[in-house]
Amino acid sequence: MKYIEKLQYITHDLPHLSHVAQVQMACEAGAKWIQYRCLSKTDEELLTEINLIAEICDDWGTTLVVTDHIHLNGKADIQGFHIENMEADFTILRKLVGDDITLGGSANTLENIIRLVNEGADYTGFGPFAHTATKPNDLPLLGVEGYSVMLKKLKALSVEIPILAVGGVKFADVESLMQTGIHGIAVSGAINLADDFIEAYQDFYDVVKG
């Protein structure tokens, strides 16, 4: 089983802070897992930015995962991909990238999770926990209870996969979420928009790793 970090930091298109700057700050704060999420650039622009980010991650010993863009596999130093399309066929994707690349998928239902497990995903970002402006959607919000209920269902079915809460997670939510037994948290806005980026990251880290 691959190593899946408990606190996953997700970059975002921000007017005041580039993806490269976000990654640099996250790594300085101690990030060991970066999910580069940029859906607004051409392949050439993406590769230019990913190569810069990969150098930073390499310097800090940080895992680099790219949201979607799986066609870029092998063109940059990317350790994994997170696929947001809940209908994606992970059996096909696994054959495309091989066994060494980490593959994560988004999920919102028990059926989503079971399919990801059966098709070879390494982890799932399960959400949304709450309203999020980072990735707007009309999916039902899970709240803390949603994670607790889902983990009980998975245990009853003997289904195992690292579950990460994602979507609108704020610092005040982390302790109660971790108490449900989830593997960890994926976070973007609560760190990106904080008054002190590095302090916010480290606050999350302390509770998730606690």
Spatial strand order of the main sheet: 1-2-3-4-5-6-7-8
| Coarse structural class | alpha/beta
Helical run tally: 8
Shape: globular
Q: What's the order of the H and E elements?
A: EHEHEEHEHEHEHEHH
Q: Supply Rg.
A: 16 Å
Residues in helix, %: 40-55%
Major pleated sheet: 8 strands, parallel, barrel
What is the straight-line distance between the termini? 22 Å
Uncertain residue ranges: none
Write up this protein.
The chain is an alpha/beta fold and 210 residues long. An eight-stranded parallel barrel has the order 1-2-3-4-5-6-7-8, surrounded by six helices. The two termini are 22 Å apart.
Jot down its keywords.
alpha/beta, 210 residues, 8-stranded parallel beta barrel
Topology:
Blueprint: E1 7-10, H1 19-29, E2 33-36, H2 43-60, E3 63-67, E4 80-83, H3 90-97, E5 102-107, H4 110-118, E6 123-126, H5 143-156, E7 163-165, H6 171-178, E8 184-187, H7 189-192, H8 197-209
Question: What can be said about this structure in brief?
Answer:
By secondary structure, this protein is α/β, with parallel strands linked by helices. The protein has 8 helices and 8 strands; from the N terminus they run βαβαββαβαβαβαβαα.
